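Figure 2 data, in text form.
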Amino acid sequence: MASNDTTYRKVDNMKLIARTALTTLVAGATVLLLTPAAFAVDEEAAKQLARQNNCFKCHSVSKDKDGPAYHKVAEKMKGKADAEETLIHHITSGEKAKFPDGHEEDHKIVKTDPPHDMAQIKNLVQWILAQ
């Protein structure tokens, strides 16, 4: 009888280990899938949207123009929990933008096709933050 009890305990322990491993694997995969960094940025689509909206008139990736270089924006926003939300608001609200000479203008609102496509807006913002 003791032999059967030992066998059942071993089987129960193996089941517990398997369930724990599976739960850990599922939890880890869920975290990875829900992390913004897990979403691949479509660089060409982001650049195309920026070109369509004349963003490169005032910005470039590495050199300041009337607006800051995107790498400076990314550097400034690095580590901030609200970086994506802040940039989305900036490019979709028309809030004031400060220019090097001190004057302010309404920032151009980025338009998408179809209109108000947040996936395109988020892709652009994630591309900017990746610079």
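Caption note: The first helix runs from residue 2 to 34.
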